[in-house]
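Standup, Tuesday
Yesterday: got the pipeline producing structure tokens again.
Today: sanity-check two examples.
Blockers: none.

Example 1:
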Amino acid sequence: MENLVEVKYAQTGESTKTNIYGMREMQERVYAYRASKYLLIKAPPASGKSRALMFVALDKMQNQGIKKVIVAVPERSIGSSFKKTELKKFGFFADWMPEDRYNLCTRGSDNSQGKIKTFQEFMDSDAKILICTHATLRFAYETIEETKFNDCLLAIDEFHHVSADLDSSKLGELLHSIMTKSNAHVVAMTGSYFRGDGVAVMRPEDEMKFDRVTYNYYEQLNGYTYLKSLGIGYHFYQGRYLSALPEILDTDKKTIIHIPSVNSLASTKDKYEEVDRIIDIIGELDHQDPETNILFVKRHSDGKILKIADLVEDKEGREKVVEYLRHIEKVDDLDILIALGMAKEGFDWPFCEQALTIGYRGSLTEIVQIIGRCTRDSENKTHAQFTNLIAHPDASDDQVTTAVNNMLKAITCSLLMEQVLAPKFNFKVRLEDDNTENQKGEIKIRGFKQPSTEKVKRIIEADLNDLKAKILQDQNVLKALPGNVDPVVVNKVLIPKIIQTTYPDLTDEEVEEVRQYVIADSAIKTGSIEDTGDIRFIRMASRFVNIDELSIDLIDSINPFQKAFEVLSKTLDKRTFRLIQECVDATRLQMTEEVAVSLWPKIKEFVKATGSEPDKNSMDPHERELADALLYIRNKKRSQQ
């Protein structure tokens, strides 16, 4: 199957260049906000967030009265990102030198009395830096008064693990308490800050206190030296996924295989057997290194020995593998890594070329993190590939509705990633007498509403992808994606409701300004801009539009997310695609007055074009939708009379 998303990059080298202090572009941007009491850093994997924190933390200790720095990471393996680092030799004024004693990301339970006691000791000592897991921070916090955090910097890595929901994250409540009961500074770092995954990350009143530094995926990847392109695609299997693996697993590429959770429909329920079968598909086990637990497998096709790391194995055996992975330096040190819940966020294997994920992943955050494993810049690759192997819907299967829903949700993940990976545009209104050329990255739209308030500007600057995540996860929008709901309903009814729910303090005018920006940004990022002589065209859905004639009314008439389903309709057989449409159609949007009114102009156009009213028994889902709207309007009118 062809990729649903294919992005090409300019290889400018800008994102890896450093200034006179040894800072990359992203780190320099963060350092400009070093005086912020509360700072949120949103940047992709491999952009250098950990070192950005070092620069900021050292300045706070040197110049801002901060006496201690506490760095909290979600799992022990990520703690190595904050190890001792010499920064003076690159031009900075100090080195990052945490004491080994206060690195609590070591073997052993995160809630052990020993680690908690060491944490307490650190708070009373003259030591400057402590590194621990989120879990150790939570347990230690329960034994320490909030005022102990005065004059401290609390840095939370992989911040999307925090939640404002008291039942799901004590870390969220801890953060709120420290912010309200101490003068502590906070730096939060994340590569995938999607509130659309569930409950809010922070309470709204806390979130408003943070200054934000955003460095997007496109800036990062476009500024690489070696990587030219990234593909995101799907492959569908019937029966068991192991039967489809030989077709899509390219053992010439450095690969991470994420097998499904044992609770997933894709799982065989025996994770160890699955690993054995994958190895059998690749080749024949030659031997296992007793020191590292790395498997040496002789490939079936040519007898080449491949080095395979098994992170599915539990306990002590896995610890040896993790230790080996920490010290990989050469491209030949590893060929394939098989994992279940590991090797996602914070895991660094720059040579990885493809991430093969088996089974549906419901979390956008998880997808972003997995893709980030193969998008590091490395001289051994020019293309990075993410492939999701998911179950093919089968009409004879009792789980057909679940399979269809999983397929649609998986595709929405790729649609969102397409938005995240695309370059940033600046939208402005095109006035009637405006014939000037657009500046680089600027697109003018007739009838477009410019952001008029700081609230709207803040949402557009910092929250646009978060808002798109929420939109794409909405059940009604999901039903509309295959094209069986009129684009006007999606753009002018469903999306404004989601915006209003997400930001209840916005006025109707502000909601409309955000709505227009969301749909314009979405439609153009899923389209393509083409030059034809002196005229530039934008391809949106199946239309080619002269860029100088672009209007908000035209954008409102286009489903910005339909391209993925155009690809599906060409790839899947007609029977399967029809099955998808039928499953979605069975849970059609409930007709409301708002939807019916929005469709009334389309009903009149249909009658004028065909000479008849839309038929509710038509094979065309759009015609059935118009028929439902017409029936609703007539019933409403009858009841009023």
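Example 2:
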Amino acid sequence: MPAARHSAPRAIAIALIVASPWAAARAMSDSLRLVPTPRTAVRQTGSFAIGRRTVVVLAAGASADDRFAAQQLVEEVATDLGIRLRTVEAASVPARDAIVIGRLGRDRIVNQALRPVRGRTVSQVRREGYVLSIRPEGMCIGGRDAAGTFYGVQTAKQMVRANANGRTVPCVTITDWPVMRYRGWQDDISRGPIPTLSSLKQQVRTLSEFKMNFFTMYTETVFRLKSHPSLAPPDGITAEEVRELCAYARKHHVEVAGNFASFGHANFLARPDYRPLGTFITREGLRKGDTCGFNPAEERTYAFLSDVYDEIAPAYDSPLFMANCDEVFYLDGSGDRSGKPDPRLERMISDLGVGGVYARHINRLAELLARHGKTPMIWADSETVTAPPQWGTGPEKTAFGGNRDQALASMHNDVVLIAWEYEADYDFAGYLKPLVASGRRVLVAPGVYATAQVFPYFGFAAKNIADFTAEGARTGAIGMLLTTWDDDGDSLMGYQWQPLVWGAECSWSPPTYASARTRDAVRGARLAAFRAAYPAVFYGLIGGAADAASIELSGLREDTLFKTAPRYTMSASYYWMGAGESAAEGRDDADVGRHAAEADRITAVLRRAKGLARHHAGSLDYVVLAARRCAFMARRIQAARLSASPGTSAEAARAFEALEADAGDLRAEYIRLWGVENRPSSLANVVARYDKLIQEMHSRAEAPRSG
């Protein structure tokens, strides 16, 4: 509950490094709603009232960064409290009603305002860190650097958004800085949805609020190249848009890294004009003739990649560049469409070995990128691959013969390794150990688990994100890159915010597990505190205004509609399947009816919440769409079973008529929400699925009549 203006004297110290993290998170959830959880937060007596006389004070000659950060707080107060604060520059701090914003040590007014809490509290603050002091007479935000000031403002915004009682915020001293240098996310923009520039800016703006600072867009053929104009669709991303995005991201202290699939699964190589650059899978168990990626024995490969890098790399600010290079299964067997192996690649593998061929390609890429001052990042499964990874069973990604050691020994030392894994239960320690031991920089890459899903499986993803990030921090990984993938082509960003924000929580202050026995308890307490805070810090919903379980649809996930584990019950394949097939796959009638009723209840809760949300209200429409899709799946099973029962043909016809109308409404809403986020490219593919779905419902409604 929000703190009263004059609370009883108490001090709650939160120390995520020294004390038990889950105990700290639990204490935080009982007092303050903040994400990410600060390193230390000490509550004090009383509260600070923000009123029309309150003024935001910057040091004379304040930097553009500090003025931008201050403006963010001004806008927050205007949205949440209805007060438009003035911003001034001054040499000294007013006695009362001032919000001071600036730099620790550099700005006299910050040193003056923090005098009551100076000493070790201030001196210990590290890079990107800050001190936030709220006292009855005023507030002060002092950052160790520009990013620290910005992040201190984000915490102050949450104090207003999620912890205010009327126009007062509780008194507290927060000292905070991140554990991980890189706290990032990746948006897949190449398997369907291509975000608009405004949508990409929204991602940066939103996730920077939660102190994420690194962003890359998985790219295959959506960057419009002057050297290869036919490669991208007409509404692909341009270099000018990327530069504008980078400039926007810099203000929010987000580093944007370039990205291009530079080895495996470059499926455009199937096109006749690019076919000479590619090699194809012929391994047993994989479809013969599937394009897999670039042929490292073909010199024209590097001429093409040089063209690509010459246009893509300079558009991005980051010195890092995501070259991907994963899933190169063909290095131990390749051929053209007839299955005939490329003798040049065979000779190269014979001479250098699989690991040597892989390292040679990475080194060639590193040389091309070095011309632009970039260092490659690569997915860390691939420098080990001679067969597809055995997902979910242990550290096999790094244990294929001697190829890993050979590749690492031959590869440029500055290449950054991205270790990816999306399973909840996995030997993360075994996976990371050889990568970290190589001396290279390593990032861990968990996933939001939204791929080919009607809605992300947050409960599953939360464990993967927490445990993988925790192990990364323990073993010295420099950061986390949280991945979203759109393999099915119809995933929408609007319902993926909760796992993304949980990633921000875990990368700023990763959980620390004393032992395997305490892992579930520590993570569980952290997650409970996060779930309690999320509706308030993201939407500005407090008290009975939001149902956190509804926001993540966990009830629908666990109350499985189909004869499968919760992990799969919201699979998009179930949504698109035929009525008869879904009826056979569905649970018993009572379960199906309960699922439909729960989906309807959640839809109503979310619609009420949208009317009360002060922030990101539009994203609730995406969650409503997911809940409605779940209700549709349940009612389709009911209708199909009616049609198969004697004497219910008229009732079945009415049910399918209602489903036809509902599918039409879902189609229209999906098109609207797609347009909010994305460019037109690839929308037709999903609309065609909806048209097929609508036609089936129509045919099933007409069938009893025609019979």
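Quick observation on example 2: The longest strand covers residues 40-49. Confidence is low (pLDDT under 50) at residues 1-29, 283-289, 385-401.
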